[in-house]
Design goal:
The protein has about 375 residues and is of the alpha/beta class. It is about 40% helix and about 20% strand. The protein contains 14 helices and 19 strands.
């Protein structure tokens, strides 16, 4: 096992900010751009580690800090030897700090109280008081043992205006310093290998706040840069605009991570074109489980890539009766296991009969499409 974390610029697009990076972690190398399938509860839903590797996934988001703290708990994870061993994943892994879950809980009728110290809530099963602070978030991530860990932050809501964004920004920066202090006491996981710490740029939809946050992150010389906030990935036009605000200040040698981007394949193209390296989203597997299967082809137009198909949206709804006797694969010429072996008619049948096998096959396809977009982006950048 390597005991280092490095990030290296391999190739820039000749005219656009898009680039290829190589990340070296204790659990292997990763070439970007790459999509991170999300295993919030220590599993990428309906996919095994073998399935993930077959879709060319080499970096995943595994084990959300909040959820792992609640269940199965740190003792179980540590006894297993860390999240990699617990979930059988031998490649690179990123985990998040729990900041987004804090926002979600706070928005659900006061299930979580947030103050300067951190987030305070009750364990949903035992009722025991739980305090998630920058120090405890970092400690939890040390036990999880991910190669890349995130500073504890307050995800900026899109409601509340500038005042709310300012308050979240101040708290995020305070917590960032505390997260870095906790990490630097021992920059390794409890299993002995080095972990990389990323900070998270907040500031909502305000250019000056985003620029201020970027400066704070860069001044601390962290291992990588996350771009967060409720708007990121939710509003892609605004996401691209925010990236354009902050990109001139970003160094070439730091990994850039847009958090929560990947609802549609085109979203990956949009952020990579703006110089982003990695991204994650629960949507590909969630959409697959609910019958929405990605369908489209990557084309080059006017020097840029687009994900295009003949439908109004880049997916087909397999529940529709028109697929009941359709012997075509989900996507013609797709090389995923599902498309090479099964028809739309079969998937329609499995979906209508609520068979678990449907979700497995559907998730394989959607993740494969996302990674295929990333591989095509790499090729496009190399050839520019």
């Amino acid at each position: 096992m390597l005991n280092i974390f490095t990030s290296e610029l391999i190739k820039k697009h000749s005219t656009l900010p898009a680039r290829i990076m190589k990340i070296t972690t204790p659990h292997g190398e990763v070439t970007t751009p790459t999509f991170m399938p999300v295993g919030t509860h220590a599993v990428v839903n309906y996919m095994t580690p073998y399935d993930l590797l077959q879709t060319q996934s080499h970096l995943i988001l595994g084990g959300n800090t909040y959820h792992m703290l609640i269940k199965p708990g740190l003792e179980v994870i540590e006894k297993a030897g860390g999240m990699h061993r617990f979930m059988g994943w031998k490649n690179a892994m990123l985990t998040d700090s729990g900041g987004f879950q804090v926002l979600s809980l706070a928005q659900k009728g006061g299930l979580c109280k947030v103050d300067a110290q951190g987030a305070h809530f009750k364990h949903p099963t035992t009722g025991q008081a739980v305090h998630l602070t920058p120090a405890s978030s970092i400690h939890t991530q040390k036990v999880i043992g991910a190669d890349i860990i995130m500073a504890f932050d307050e995800c900026t809501p899109e409601t509340g205006g500038r005042e709310a964004a300012l308050a979240a920004l101040k708290r995020t920066h305070d917590w960032l310093h505390q997260s870095k202090e906790a990490h630097e006491k021992n920059p390794r996981s409890v299993y002995g290998y080095k972990q990389a710490l990323f900070g998270i740029i907040q500031g909502g939809s305000f250019p000056d706040l985003r620029e201020e946050s970027t400066k704070v992150i860069l001044d601390l010389n962290l291992d990588g840069i996350g771009i967060g906030g409720e708007v990121i990935g939710f509003d892609m036009a605004k996401t691209v605009e925010i990236l354009q605000w902050i990109r001139p200040a970003l160094p070439d040698n730091k990994i850039r991570y847009t958090m929560g981007v990947g609802l549609n394949p085109q979203d990956l193209i949009d952020v990579v074109t703006e110089g982003v390296d990695i991204f994650d989203c629960v949507a590909p597997t969630r959409n697959a489980r609910h019958g929405s299967l990605y369908h489209g082809y990557i084309l080059e137009k006017n020097g840029r890539l687009i994900f295009e198909n003949n439908n109004e949206v880049p997916h087909i709804l397999i529940k529709k009766s028109i697929y009941a006797k359709d012997e075509n694969p989900i996507l013609k010429n797709c090389e995923c296991y599902t498309c090479k072996n099964f028809s739309r008619a079969y998937l329609h049948y499995l979906f209508k009969e609520h068979k678990l096998g449907y979700a497995h096959l559907a998730c394989i396809h959607n993740i494969h499409v996302m990674q295929n977009v990333c591989l095509r982006l790499q090729q496009w950048i190399k050839e520019s």
